[in-house]
Design a protein that fits this description.
alpha+beta, 7-stranded mixed β-sheet, 12 helices, 29 strands, about 25% helix, binds guanosine-5',3'-tetraphosphate, RF3_dom_3_sf, Peptide chain release factor 3, nucleotide-binding, protein biosynthesis, cytoplasm
Amino acid sequence: MTNFKDEYKNRITFAIISHPDAGKTTLTEQLLLHGGVIRQAGTVKGRGSNKMASSDWMAIEQQRGISVTSSVLQFDYAGKRINILDTPGHEDFSEDTYRTLMAVDSAVMVIDSAKGIEPQTKKLFEIVSKRHIPVFTFFNKLDRDGRDAFDLVDELEKTLGIQACPMNWPIGSGQVLQGIYDLQHDKLIRYNSTKTIDQSVYDESMEEIVLQKDAGNQFDESKILHGQQTPVFFGSALANFGVEEFLSEYLKYAPAPSYKRTVDHLEIQPDNEQFTAFVFKIQANMNPNHRDRIAFVRIVSGEFHKGMEVTLARNAKKLKLSNVTQFMADERENIETAVPGDIIGLYDTGNFQIGDSIYEGKQTVEFEPLPTFTPELFNRVIAKDVMKQKSYHKGINQLVQEGTIQLFESWHGQEYILGAVGQLQFEVFQFRMANEYNSQIIFETLGKKIARWIRLDELDERMNTSRSMLAKDRLGNPVILFENRFALTWFADKYPNVKLESKM
Ligand code: G4P
C-alpha cells in the first residue's frame, strides 16, 4: 500500500483563469480529451451531447452561454492525478471564483491572443498572485489573426507585473500560421505539416526567435514556483495545437500540494499526519433526482478514510464522514481514501458553511478565513405566496449557505434583504428558488448601496435614516447601507468616533 506522503506528490490541483470567451472551456475539453476522459470535443458546455450539464439549474447557464458554477474534474494523466477546479467566468460570480482559487496550488491563465489581457484576466491574476502560486500562461486562438507576440508578452509583463518566459514562439498566426517553435528543446512543431512552409513568415519569426533567445528572460524554476515568473505558451485550444506540448511542460513544473496557513499563523504541511481540510464551496441540488447538497472540501494534510470522525472547527461539532464522493470526470464516485490536494465532496445535511475547517484528532486546526466580498447591490425579497413560507425560508437559508448571495435583515428583523456583487446573482437566485424550492419570489429594488459594518455598542437607532439604512448581516452584526458616497461622508462627519468597516 502506498503511503499518502508519497501519493500526494503526484497531485496537481489547479484552476484555469481567464476572461470570458478566451477559451477556458475549450482548453478544459482538450485536457479531458488528452486525459482520455471524453472522446469528443464539445461535451463540456451546452454543446454537443450535453454530458456535463448534470443539473437542471444549469439551464440558466445554457440560456445565457455562461458558466455559473464551479465544478471539479479529476482524471489521471501521465502518472499524475489532476484536479481541475472550474471557475465561473462571469464577473458577477467572482466571489465563488475567488474562493475556489484558495483551493488550488497553481493556475493556468488563458488569454485570447487577438485581445491580450482583458479586465477579468487581470482581476483573477491579482487574486492568485497574492498567494504567490505559480501561473502558467497559454496564449490561445493562434489559428486566428492575433497580435504581435512581442507585444503580447510585453503587455503581460507590464499589466500584470510578472516576468514572462516564453517556452515556445509562434510562427505566424491565423491564415499564415506555420507552427510554433519550442524554445526549450529547439524544435519546430508544424501546424499543418502537409502544407509547404511559407518562407517569408518563417524567416521573420526566426529573427524574432533569435532576439527572444538573446534578450528574453531566462527560464527560472524557482521564480516560477514563487509566482515571480510565468512560462508562456502559444497555441490553439480549438485546433488542439500546442496543447499537448503545453500539458507536458505544465505537468513537469506544476507544484505538488502545498501548506496552508491557520488563524494562528501556523503552516500545515501536506505530510502532516493529522487529517485537515477546508470547505471552499457548497452546492445544493446538483442532481435534481436526489435533492442533495455537497460541500466541496480540499484536503490540506493527512489521509482521508471513509467513515473517519472529524471535528468542525467553527463549533467543535463531531462528524462522521461516511457519505463521501470524488469527482472523477463527470461521474461521481464513492471513495475510500483521499490525500492532500484532492477535492472530496461531502454530502451535507446542513452542517457545513463555506470556509469551515475540519480536522481529525484533538489538535484544533482552523485555517485562515476565505476572502469575502462587500456586496454593492441590494434587493428586498418577498415570497409571492404567503402560504409557502416554509420552502421560502428553506430556499433562502440553503442558497445563502452555499454562498450564492449574501443575506441581511432590516434592523428590526421583519424583512430579508439580499446583497450581491452583480445583478446576475439575483437572477440565478430567483431562478433557483422557483426551480429547486418551488418558491416564487418578488424583488423590491433597493439598488446600489455602500455597506459599512459598525460595532454593536456604537449603534444608535437614529442612524437609521432615509439615506442610511440600518440592517444586520446573517450573523446579527450591524451594517449600515448608505445611499451614496455623500451619505457616507455625512455620516462620518456626524459620528466621527464610529468606526466604519467595509468588511465584517
Ligand atoms: P470560455 O470558456 O473561456 O468562455 O471560452 P470557450 O472555450 O467557450 O470559447 C469561446 C469561443 O472561442 C468559442 O466559440 C470557442 O469555440 C472559441 N475558441 C476557443 N478556443 C479557440 C481557438 O483556439 N481558436 C479559435 N478560432 N476559436 C477558439 P463560440 O463561437 O463562442 O462557441 P461555439 O458555438 O463555436 O462553441
